[in-house]
Amino acid sequence: MPIVNLTINNKKIQAQSGQTVLQAAKEAGINIPVLCHHPALPPAGACRICLVEIEKQRSLQPACTFPVSEGLVIQTHSPKVQEARKFSLELLLSDHPLDCMTCNVTGNCVLQDLAYEYNAKGERYKGIQHRYPVDTSNPFIQVDRNKCVLCGLCIRACKYANGVEAIGLVHRGFSAHIGFGADSTMQDSPCEFCGSCVEVCPVGALMPKMSLGKGRDWQVKKVRTTCSYCGVGCQLMLEVKDNQIIKVDSVWDGPSNHGWTCVKGRFGYDYVNHPDRVTKPKVRRYLLDGGPKTKNESASSAPITDSNPWDWVETDWETALTITANKLRETRDTYGGDSIGVLTSAKCTNEENFLMNKLARQVIGTNNIDHCARL
Prior knowledge:
Layout: E1 3-8, E2 11-16, H1 21-27, E3 51-54, E4 61-62, E5 73-75, H2 79-93, H3 110-117, E6 141-143, H4 153-161, E7 167-170, E8 177-180, H5 196-200, E9 206-208, E10 221-226, E11 235-241, E12 244-250, H6 263-267, E13 282-284, H7 285-289, E14 312-314, H8 317-335, E15 342-345, H9 350-364, E16 369-372
């Protein structure tokens, strides 16, 4: 791409032809505030917060959509620009709940940060305010249209990232709002509950229900990890408070998922601290005692006593794996390799499944191996 020369805030910089003013400024370390822009999504120029003053242009231009060209002279924080941004913010605040004291996204809200930066007030413009009912019918996501700023990020995330197009903008003017399917609920739309819309929402309009009231941004510890649900290797950022996961965020530089997740990866983390979760290997008591189980005795017919040979007993990994290996060897030597079957899982990596294939065919001596995505 050809290189063009331009000036931003009296600083001469170079940018690639085809870039936007916003991209060029960011690469040069110059901050331009945005509300409706996300680097992983196509620009829309909807919020008018990134307006800049460009020499020889009749009006202010949105930096997120205006392309760079040779010789541009740009001011990103001139008095005219500052006034326009404050005006746009105060119009948004005139129809926005001013409940920051109890809002779940306080401390992590783009609108709140911009209002603070530009000293925008919510009472300057009076008028009718929306009073939409908060939709809590969805098992994963709470929808509060009163807090929506119509940035369109959720619409673009659903369309360009997940390819579902379950979200759209319905009606016009003051009645415009985000809608699902034919302006219905998420359940009645093509929504796959991936949570991409929640991730890109700059305010509290779309919130994960499992995180409501659990903690604010400055109260949590963020831990990067790999999703455990399948072998794709999606990167996730966990928000942890009091040793409990309260939310899952995207990792935008994740090499395999680039920030996007499935419904299980984003919302299926409650198993981690579930009381029924098995955290140590268990074996039948009679296997630890060394003696065989009683003839013709089944787990259902055995009496429930402290010495019930069918009881599950916690043990260490070395003991459990040794018992498993010995039982597999004993069965193979007695009844042949084909008496054993092996199931592998989509939750394992390809390398792990390959090793299970080698174990089944070359060590145990059976071709009875299958793969199940439900394991």
